[in-house]
Model the fold of this input.
Amino acid sequence: MSAPALQRPALPARRRLLAAGGWAAAAVALTVAVAPQAAAEPRSASPAAPVAAPATVGTTLDEWINEALVVMELNGIPGTYEGIHRNILRESGGDPAAINNWDSNAAAGIPSQGLLQVIPPTFAAYHVAGTSTIITDPVANIVAACNYAADRYGSIDNVFGAY
Done:
């Protein structure tokens, strides 16, 4: 069963919430729509730098995706709830601690991890400042994977298989 489309507050209101309480407050205070978002120019990859970021607030897959969508919108990373959800279910079944120990990446010593099964070098290259630097943090994993997918495929919405 899909969630109904909800109205989002205008972007300036979200930015005010973000400035007032940080990522966690903005993510909790906002209800992000499930309607497709307009595609934005992919954010170029930049090496991860240590960031003192708040931990993910949500405890469910829907909350993690909605928190990630807030971060993605503020960073110009395209993607929709549906595209993220579809890929998470295929990649990890919704388990943020999932680790792939059987493919070629695992054989090379760099297993994919987290909700969207990101390998550590890709996570480091596409990490978005303001999110956790822990690869299995649900929001950080989603945002980094969507940043990579945007750079590589235009959006996570264009990914329908292993990527």
Remarks:
- DSSP finds six helices and no strands in the chain.
- Residues 1-53 have pLDDT under 50 and may be disordered.
- Residues 11-29 form the longest helix (19 residues).
- The radius of gyration is 15 Å.
